[in-house]
Every structure is written in structure tokens, then in C-alpha cells.
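re the bet — no i am not wrong, look at it urself. input seq straight from the record:
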Amino acid sequence: MPKLRGEAFWRETLRSAHYVVAPMVDQSELAWRLLSRRHGAQLCYTPMLHAQVFLRDANYRRENLYGEACPEDRPLIVQFCANDPEVFVQAALLAQDYCDAIDLNLGCPQMIAKRGHYGAFLQEEWDLLQRMILLANEKLSVPITCKIRVFPEISKTVKYAQMLEKAGCQLLTVHGRTKEQKGPLAGVASWEHIQAVRKAVSIPVFANGNIQCLSDVEECIRKTGVHGVMSAEGNLHNPALFEGRNPLVWEMAEEYLEIVQKYPCPLSYVRAHLFKLWHHTLQVYQQLREELAKVKTLEGIVDVNRELKLRCQEEIANQKEGEKPKEGLPFFHWICQPYIRPGPKERCKENGASGTEKGVRGKRALEEEDDGISELLSKNKQKKKLRNPNKSFDPSLKPKYAKCDQCGNPKGNKCVFNMCRGCCKKRAFKETADCPGHGLLFKTKYEKSLSWQSSQRVIQNPEISRRGAVDVGETAALEETGDS
């Protein structure tokens, strides 16, 4: 039977899915997919899998895809990151019997994707992408799909999408942000880009970005004309998003933990999900936040979840009539609701010291100190400052380093060439010179090599050795007689 394509694939294989759970590294595992499907999700993606690792590692395949068969977990799309056509297709061939389509990740904007040269960092390499999709479309028994990020220019984004369609992509998910829009710089996704792509291609299109509740989904479909809408962070904070409900957090947490007991996953995944579900509550009960971070067993996580539930129920019992949610939240903190990612400056003031338990330091307390310097610190630097309060992170107080004469990087203080180690190494090698400051001894090693070669010649030719001895004897005799 020939594989279905385009609209027919979306309508029959994907069952006209409108509500889609995004591929999320370490977060869209089987247990979470099943929870999401119970509450309105119609299509799920696996976490992003590395094609090369999937191809060579049987354990990786088993842990991420070949585990317990679960008929409820369909339709399912397996997503790979890759930058080699053969590796991508070989990995996809091993996965195609366990899913309904294979997705090529062209949207990951993280530094690990830049180092590994995949995801959104392939979006300028159209020849390579064409070869990857053409080969996959030819070899696989299931359709090939792609998830992309946009270019700043709508026209270039449209040409990009048309190129992928022409190569054989059967469904396109468009995240309406550029690869530079991530973390605190994420900003608002452009539905205009998505709408332009939808009008320019004949294959189904999913939209991704700005989805926090069901009304966002409906508005996105109405404005862009897409076939479906994908949610990532919105789904993590409220797995009942596609039902249009805002349930009590502990209801979702307890249901998820029950599924995990049947379909186990790494403890780090479970902990990360509870941090998202309980996000707003954990700003209030900081002590339990620390306990959740340190717990080592699933039973321990269940206990922390139970304690959070009891604290919230006690707070509800003591609630005054007419009391409103704090911190500008649309609902009380024990209700599943969107988390609005703060901007670069807002991030530092988010959930300050207010709302914390008595005697417990606020999550962002450091940012109010040091005359505003700390508001620019990353989370890692804030943690370092907690461990070492006397350490200064003011860039103006950092020591100034002399620059390398060649490239401008900091030079070695004892370098004989006044260069950084990289430039010094090149020059010392070229000139057969030493630089003790950088531990480079090309001249010394060369001289030792010559000495060793000379000694080897003497050993291999005894005549030279005897002649050398005669010469030494004659010289000594001449010296004794005073002749020179």
C-alpha cells in the first residue's frame, strides 16, 4: 500500500489532529504523552532523538522508543536531529515501524544544536536539507515532516517552506520565532509568518508559538488558517490546556505520577514536570521547592507532592471571602495556569521576596542587592554568589589583560612573543623556537633529536667510533707536547 501524502496523510493517519503536543527534550516522554492525550491532545511527538546515537546504541533505542508497546500512544511522530542524509535515513528506518511519521528537527535554537550543527542552525544549508528529505522520502515507508523556525523576512521564510515541500516534506510545523528568539529574548511569535507559509504551500501546516490556553489555539487557527496548533510550555504548565480547563495542580500531578508508576521514566523527567506544574506554588513554599530538588526516589517525589497538596488545601480552608490571587496571576497558585516567560529585565524581578514563607529566602533575593549589578547576573552566577557572597561579578572590577599581538585574545604573561598560546604555538613551531612561558619547547626538542640521531649513527658504525677515539688520542698527545 503506497504511503499517504499531504492532506490525506493528515486526515487519515493523523485523524485530522488539531491539538498537538510538541517534541520536548526529556519532557514529552511516554507518561507525559499519555497524560496529555487523556486531556485533549490528539497528536504527540517524541522528544528530539539524536539520529547518530539512535543508530549505534541499542539501549538508547529501547529507552526512547522500543519500550513497552502502548496502543493508546498513537498517532505518534518520532523526531530526529541530524545533519547527514545517510545517518538520518538509517536511524529513521529503525524507527518507522513504531510511529506514523518521521520529523526532521530544523527548529532547535539551543547552543548544543549550534555545537552539534543541527536544528535551526541548518536553516541556511538548503542543498543539504533537500538531500536529506529527498532520500528520506524515497526510502521510508512513512511520511517525512519538518519543524522549522522562521527567518526575519517573511519572503525568505516562504521560499524556505516551499523548498522543503518540493523536496518531499508532507507536513510542516512552523514556530513563529527566529533562532535568536529564545529564553528571555523569546518575545512574541509571529503568526504573520505562519499565515504566509500556510497560504504558500499545499501540504498541512501546524503553528507553534503564543499558545497558553484553548482560546489562543482557536484564535491561531482562525487567523493563520493552519490545520493544527502545537503547544510546548503551555502544555507543561497545564496538560488540560486542550480541554479548555484549568484543573487543580495536584489532580494533574497525582494522575501523572500514577502513569509513571506504570510506564517508568528517569526521575529527572518526573521532577522537571512537577517543577513546571507546581511552578507558582513553589514560589510560595520555597522549602518544599528545595526538597523536590533534592529527593532521590519516586516515592519521595510523591511525598513532596502530597505535602504541597496539604499546604494548598490548608490555605484554601483559611481563605477569606473575596480574596484575589496575588502576584498578578489570573488564578490562585494551586490552579494550572500559564507561565508568562519574563523579558531580560523583568526576569530579574520575577516573584521577588514577597509571597515566600517566613524565614525563607526568596528565589530572586540576590537581585535586589549590589546596587543593581545582580539584576544582570545569570542563574548560575547567582548560585555562585550564594555560595561565595564576597565574590564580585562587576565586570568593571575584573583585571585587564594585555592583548595578543596577533589576534587580540589575552596574551600569556610570560610569553616571549607577547602572544596567546594558540598564536605562540604557531610561531614557535614555524621558527623552531622555545617559549617557556607557554611550555613550548620546539627548539630544545629539535636539538635533542639531532643529538640522539648523531649517537645512533655512532653506534651503528663502529669504524666512526674507533676513528673518533684515535682523533681524541692524537689531540691529547699534541696538547701534552704543547703543539696545537
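see?? Confidence is low (pLDDT under 50) at residues 350-374, 475-484. told u. also The first helix runs from residue 6 to 13. so pay up
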